[in-house]
Amino acid sequence: MPTATQTLNISVNNLSVTYSNAKLALYNASCTVEPGTITALVGPNGSGKSTLFKSIMGFLKPTQGQIHVGGLTVQKAQKKQLMAYVPQSDEVDWNFPVSVYDVVMMGRYGYMNLLRIPGSKDRRLVMESLERVGMIDFRHHQIGELSGGQKKRAFLARALAQEGKVILLDEPFTGVDVKTEKRIIDLLIQLREEGHTILVSTHDLASVLTFCDRTILLNQTILASGTTEETFTEENLSMTFDGLPISSLPQMYHTSEVDR
Ligand SMILES: Nc1ncnc2c1ncn2[C@@H]1O[C@H](COP(=O)(O)OP(=O)(O)OP(=O)(O)O)[C@@H](O)[C@H]1O
């Protein structure tokens, strides 16, 4: 049973995910995200990175295979608030009339009862998380008013407020300037030192070498995985980015989105 101080791994075994339109997004994917590491998830557009994140979060039901977080099934890990997720920007409805403070407070919902009345700990953690990402002065702003980098930081603050031991970030550097990217990377390094396990997808291949301990290369299945040094080879990258999609595989698996 994971304790508050333990670092947690993510284990993915033979995962296949097919969308309801019969689109096979992942096939027989197996990998381990080692505890207490920053691990990069790298692959071309449409290679299944977001699908893997959503499967780890329990938003998608695999057609085959299992995922465990800290030895627990995704459902049990979710109930214990072990995973926090920073989604891709285009997955968020930025017109939804909600303040930055409210977005970050959503990270505390899993700890509240149905009435969702925040307690002093909830309010303190929200303020601390906003402070940590440098967004305290924006707390009363509507999320739609934020720049790309501020939006990312607001959602990162939500993940911090949630106190998940495992943090999943789907393209946190897309649309952010160099300074914000550096700020996010510094924060991820601090979080790793505090014992978090971090999985981050990015198209910024150069930055992977600077801060990711390990790398997973994905193109509909896991093509390589290991330390960044051993995985980030020209041969592996060309296999990942030039390789043909597994379109010849049988389209027989069906995945349903989990009602939330
Ligand atoms: N809701 C959905 N219904 C049907 N197909 C989907 C759905 N979501 C994703 N797909 C398809 O599944 C495949 C994997 O998509 P996914 O979003 O996981 O890739 P990705 O690696 O995150 O891409 P990107 O780098 O562009 O964000 C793609 O072919 C995509 O078109």
TrEMBL record:
**All copies of domain ABC transporter, residue ranges:** 10-245
The keyword Membrane appears for this protein = no
Q: Does the keyword Nucleotide-binding apply?
A: yes
Give the GO molecular function terms: ATP binding; ATP hydrolysis activity
Q: Which UniProt keywords apply?
A: ATP-binding, Nucleotide-binding, Transport
| SUPFAM superfamilies attached to this UniProt entry | P-loop containing nucleoside triphosphate hydrolases (SSF52540)
> What Pfam families does the record point to?
ABC_tran
Q: Which family does it belong to?
A: Belongs to the ABC transporter superfamily.
Q: What is this protein called?
A: Manganese transport system ATP-binding protein MntA
Organism expressing this protein natively: Hyella patelloides LEGE 07179
Q: Which gene holds the coding sequence for this protein?
A: mntA
